[in-house]
Design brief:
The protein is mainly alpha-helical and 238 residues long. Helices cover 57% and strands 8% of the residues. The chain is built from 9 helices and 7 strands. The longest helix is centred in the last third of the chain and has 24 residues.
């Protein structure tokens, strides 16, 4: 959406940035009556929010694994619904916080449905739960074999969302790098392949899909040929 990010409360005169708070409610008096003070509307998709895992952690400590997984999936899914990759007109990175939240949501949903959960699966879920709100992404060596496809599908979904937002962001701009659409098309083909396989690709492939998406993001921001070449090399290696 395009908004005037600089707001002024008509009740108390407080000024704030919607890009920072994600809210049109005055942070001083709580009034919802405000006006934009900037002349132009700016493309913005990221609603500032924190991944709140307190309930899931309480359930992990005092309840059952299924209850903790249900709470974690709910919190993670709410977070990624609100997260975007454009803030005040600027394209952001595909960051570890988003990737970890996506994976937590997928892993939690998988364990919630499971008839039985192995110890290594439970330990991995708890590791995600401990660090997801700080963007602590577990190393691929720690992923249980039974959850490798879950990570693969989660990362493919994350990359697909990032790619979609890059395309929308480019639509708002006059200066589009020459090879941006072609690289995005190729990236999309790889995302579809992983999704068609239900994430059943190697963990290394999942990491390389993420690396390629990040490289494409760098290129569309910079327009630099070296970033385009790096993007092509990473995509060709998939």
């Amino acid at each position: 959406m395009e908004i005037r990010g600089k707001r002024e409360c008509t009740e108390c005169g407080t000024r704030w940035s919607y890009y920072e708070t994600g809210s049109v409610t005055c942070p001083n008096c709580g009034s919802i009556r405000s006006v934009g003070t900037a002349d132009e509307r700016t493309y913005h998709t990221d609603v500032a929010s924190a991944l709140d895992l307190d309930d899931a952690r309480r359930q992990a400590a005092d309840g059952t694994l299924a209850e903790a997984a249900e709470a974690a999936a709910s919190a993670a899914n709410e977070y990624v619904r609100e997260r975007g990759f454009v803030s005040g007109g600027d394209l952001r990175d595909l960051d570890d916080a988003y990737l970890t939240a996506r994976e937590l949501g997928y892993v939690a949903s998988e364990l919630e449905r499971a008839l039985s959960v192995d110890d290594d699966e439970e330990y991995y879920f708890l590791a995600l739960l401990r660090g997801a709100d700080d963007g602590e992404r577990p190393d691929e060596r720690d992923v249980p074999g039974s959850l490798a496809d879950v990570r693969g599908l989660a990362y493919a979904t994350a990359v697909g969302e990032y790619r979609r937002e890059i395309r929308s962001w480019l639509d708002t701009r006059d200066d589009e790098p020459e090879n941006a659409r072609a690289l995005l098309e190729t990236l999309g083909d790889h995302v579809k392949r992983v999704q068609a396989l239900d994430g059943d690709v190697s963990l290394d492939t999942s990491e390389r899909v993420v690396a390629a998406a990040r490289a494409v993001g760098d290129y569309v921001r910079s327009g630099a040929e070296e970033d385009a070449a790096r993007s092509r090399a990473l995509l060709d290696d998939l």
